[in-house]
Every structure is written in C-alpha cells, then in structure tokens.
Amino acid sequence: MTTRVDDDPATAEARALLRGAGRHDVVRGAALCAVSSAATAVGLLLPAVLGRTLDLLLAHGPAARWVWCCVGLVVLLAVLDGCESVLSGTVDARATAWLRRRLAGHVLALGPRATDRFASGDLVARLVGGAAQAGTAPGAFAALLAALAGPVGGVVALGLIDWRTAAVLLAGAPLLALLLRAFARDTSECLADYQRVQGSIAAALAEAVGGSRTIRAAGTEDRETARVLRPLPELSRAGHHMWRVQGRAAAQAVAVAPLLQLGVVAVAGFLLTRHRLSVGEVLAASRYAVLAGGVGVLVGRVAALSRARAAARRLGEVLAEPAPVPGTRRLPPGPGRLQLRGVTVRRGGRTVLDGVDLDVPGGTTLAVVGRSGAGKSLLAALAGRLADPDAGEVLLDGMRLTDLAPEDLRAAVAYAFERPALLGTTIEDTIALGLVSPGSDRVRAAARRARADAFVRRLPQGYATPCAAAPRSGGESQRLGLARAFARGGRLLILDDALSSLDTVTEHQVTEALLGDGGRRTRLLVAHRAATAARADAVAWLDGGRLRAVGPHARLWRDPAYRAVFGVGEEVPR
C-alpha cells in the first residue's frame, strides 16, 4: 500500500513543530502580521493618493494637502518596514530558540537511540542550521500573507478604478497561480536534497574531527579530506537545481506579469482617450497593475517558506523517533537487586542481546565480560534504563524500570563510563553533576575514593578550576567520572569499562574503595581485565549476545574459551 505524504510521521511532526513555533510567541507574531498588513494597506493607498495629487496639480487645484499626505504615507511606510524588520528578526530568533530546546530535549530523551539513527554531525547540523532555517517560518508566513494581500488589494483597487482593468489581470491569474504552485513543489524537493547532503557532509566532518589524532598519526589527512568533501559534487548539483528552479520561476514571472501589466496600462490608456479615466487614475492603475502582478515578490516569499518547511521536516524526522515513556511509580526500599528477564535488543537489524536472563542479588558485585561486540555496554545501559529492550523486562528490587518515575530511577542508579563527559563549569560542578545539594565535603570524599583528590588539588584553582582549563589524562578523566558516580550514591552502581585507563596500582586502589562500602549497594562492572573480574563476587559471561555462563571467575577460568576473552597466555589472577 502506498503511503501518502500526509501519513508520513516526519511530515506530521514537522507541521506540529511549525504550529508550535508559531504559537510560542503569539503576541509578537500577531504584531508582525498587523504591521505587515498595515504596510501592505499603506502601499495600496499610496497609488490612489498619488493619482489624486497628480490630477489636482494638472488642474492647478489646491494640492498642498495631498502632497503632504503623500509624504506622510511614504514616511509611515518606511517606519512600518523598519518595525516589520525588527519584529521579524525577533520572532525568528525566539522561534529558533524554541525549536532548538524542543529538539535538544528530544535527543537527550532518546539517549543512545539518537546516534543509532542519526550521525552525531548530522544531528548538530539539524540542531544548529536546520532549526535556524525552520525558525524563519513564522516570519516567512506573515510575509507571504502580506505579499498575497498586495495582488488581491491591487485587483480590488483596479476594479474600483474601472472593472475592465481588473478583468485583464484576472484573465491571467490562473496561469500565475499554476506557476507559483509548481515552483513551491519543485523548490521543496530540491531543498530537501540540498539539506540532506549538507547533513552527510556535517556527519563526516564530525567523525574526522573526533578522530583527528588517529588521522594525523596515520598520515591520512588528504584521504580524510577527500572523504569529507566527497558529497560536494552532489551538493553542487542540488544547489544548481535549486537555482534553476528559482530562475525558471523568475523567467516565467517576467514573461507573464509584464504582459498583464502592459495590458492594464493599454486598457487604462484607451479609457483615458475616451475620457473615462483621468491621468491620475491611469497612474494609479499602472501602479496597481505592478502590485497585482508582483509574482516576483511572491516567488521570494514562497521560496523562504519552502526552505523553512524543508528544514522543519528534517527536524520532524528526529522527533518522529519515539522516546522512552517515563514511569510514575515510586521505588520502594530495597537492597538493589537487579533482574533481567528474557531481555532481547536489536540494533540495525541485528540481535545484539538475545533472551538474556540474569539475577544480581542486592549488595553483590557482578563483572560482565565478553569479546568486543558481545553486548556488554548495552547490558549496562539496560540496567539503568539508558536504553529499553525490544523484548523482556529489567527490574530493580522487583519494580520494572519502565514503571519507575525518572527522579526515583536516577537517584537509585549511578553510572561511570569509559570516556566520561565532564560537564559543568568547574571540577567541583563536574563531580556534583545532578545532585540537588551536593556539599563540598561530599564532593571531596567522593574524589578521595576515586583517587582524584590529589591531582585536583594540584590544579591552579583546585576544585574551583574551570573544566576547560584543567589539563587531564585519560586516566584522570576516568577518575573524575568515578568520583561523580561515588558522590551520587544510590543502590546500584554501574561501571561501563570505567577503570580501563587507570594504571594497575590506581585500579587496585579504586577497586578496593569500590568493594569496601560494606555491601550497601549492588555493583555492575563491565570488565576487560581478568584482575577486575577476579575481584567480583560473580562473573556474567556474554558470548554472541547470549549469557553463556554465570559464576565465580576462578571456576570460569577453567574453560579455555573464557580465558580467550582476556588473552590465551594469561595466568589465573591470585
């Protein structure tokens, strides 16, 4: 069955997004429409006043008052144009800010699903350039309404002068309408292609910037530059197509509109010879003919609105991805027992975790091991609901994570990652991220447990050092991430390979601190080192997305396939 465009979720989201952007600042939007309409009304009144003034001057009548009226209308038109520019810029800026907040919030709610579906660079391009383009929609819509009012008012004014002058323009109106409709359709298509290619270039550039050290070390700068810029010919073709569409529309408008205007002037001139019209009325009719046949202005307004709608659809593609639905139930007291029941997760058409059943008693330490791609990090993400399974359920102290209120879930679960994102103004802010009332003592105690206190105190301003001004190694960044997890507390601590960059001595110290909390919390460790797995109470061995075995490290070590996970030549850690 063919899906209509109206049934496309991305298109529906784009329309809802544009409506929301328009309603976000109703007062200024209404003021913009009013000012635009007033400017159009003044522009329609000016030819009639000019015509009347000319007739009085030719008849040597009292025209001073009419001359001043013309001057006043010109000044008023200039003031209204200035107000329209200011209001349009303000409305566009506020709509853009609203769209960026809306999109950023949804991307964060999606979590890992966002980067599974869209490349990071493409998301940034949509959030920055796409939102700015879509944010012009309210102003573009108001401008289009004002531009449409010009031709309609011009035809009405011509009818008031003489119905025959209006009839000339009305005869060509269907053709002009068809030209505008075809232009709007073709413009939307080529703009969508142009923005899509822009997004692919942004995605490739973000990947190259993220891997700049690897590229430099491999000496492949020229190759990566060529890869990033490979879509440029396609971008050029899309851009040329866009200009051809606009050029064709402008050429058609130039071919049709002047003929209609010439027809109006010819009819007005004929009526002048028959003394049906005055010279001033002929002047007014010629000006109204220009306004009524002003397809060029409409082409520009339609192009602006089409650009905004095409950008909004790219935002709608992101918003069409369903975000996890937060629960509402409170988490009862408990020891932090973690259960996975029949958990299956698919990514990109591949089953990453397949029917995993796992029970982690409260207060114990479980190490999750397996080869690369076995699903360790995904299991860690599921344990704290950074991701949801496609089938099965995850429970904490008997409660499904999907039923829990977000504030309860986040207070109960603390995370530390291999490459922690150190957000916050200062080092202390970074460690206290997400805490309502952290307190300096709590922050420093967590840093001491993570063996981060010593190097933080050596920084120029200690814990008050701005993050951006704090030089850090990979291991020091991991220790700050661990300190943040320790400061958070909770009943479940999840370390996703968060010890990988630590030296052996520091890893041992951190592990001892981790295990030395008297069993007050459950610990889930994604481990790549045999020494880390050996210190855990039990090990969950993932193999090809399935749970191959659960048991003490010493017992699993007897299996050659298990030893191969860490390296065949390793001896049993003591």
Overview of this structure, please?
With 574 residues, the chain is an alpha/beta fold. It has 22 helices and ten strands. It has helices at 9-24, 26-58, 64-110, 112-117, 120-134, 137-161, 163-210, 212-218, 221-229, 232-273, 279-292, 295-319, 376-383, 406-412, 427-431, 440-449, 453-457, 474-488, 504-515, 530-534, 553-556, 560-566, and strands at 338-347, 350-360, 365-369, 391-396, 399-400, 413-417, 492-496, 522-526, 538-543, 546-551. It has a six-stranded mixed β-sheet with strand order 6-7-8-3-9-10. It has a four-stranded antiparallel β-sheet with strand order 2-1-4-5, with helices on one face. Helix 2 (26-58) packs parallel to helix 6. Residues 1-6 and 569-574 have low confidence and may be disordered.
List the helices and strands and how they pair.
Layout: H1 9-24, H2 26-58, H3 64-110, H4 112-117, H5 120-134, H6 137-161, H7 163-210, H8 212-218, H9 221-229, H10 232-273, H11 279-292, H12 295-319, E1 338-347, E2 350-360, E3 365-369, H13 376-383, E4 391-396, E5 399-400, H14 406-412, E6 413-417, H15 427-431, H16 440-449, H17 453-457, H18 474-488, E7 492-496, H19 504-515, E8 522-526, H20 530-534, E9 538-543, E10 546-551, H21 553-556, H22 560-566
Parallel strand pairs: 3-8, 3-9, 6-7, 7-8
Antiparallel strand pairs: 1-2, 1-4, 4-5, 9-10
